[in-house]
Amino acid sequence: MEGYTIITETVTQALKGRDLLRKNGCKAQVEKTNSGVRKPGCEYSIRINGGCPRAEQILQNGGVRILEMKKQRA
Fold first, then answer.
1. Is 54 helix (H, G, I), strand (E, B) or coil?
2. Which of 13, 17, 38, 67 has a CB 3.0–4.6 Å from the CB of 7, allowing a cystine?
3. What is the CATH number of the domain that holds 34?
4. Residue 13: which region, alpha, beta or left (left: phi > 0; alpha: psi -120 to 50)?
């Protein structure tokens, strides 16, 4: 099953993104991450399990700032 990890700048952005994705039928959860994209400080990511081909568009239209988006394959 494929999925995505979307790194955001703040927990507020991650929670907003998760809620937007869920309203659009995507299975999403928030995780604290340490990818090194943003230094120093914490990063939060939205993990999407399964397909959600419009995820990036949904988040951008909703005003969520994406630092990085990684496609995951199982």
1. coil
2. 67
3. 3.30.70.260
4. alpha
Domain encompassing residue 18:
3-72
* More confident: 73 or 61: 61
pLDDT confidence of residue 41: 64
16-66 per-position pLDDT tens digit: 999 999 999 999 999 988 766 555 667 899 999 887 889 999 999 999 999
Query: How many separate domains does the chain show?
Result: 1
CA 24 from chain centre, in angstroms, equals 14
Residues whose CB is less than 8 angstroms from the CB of residue 36 and which lie 6 or more positions away in sequence, other chains included: none
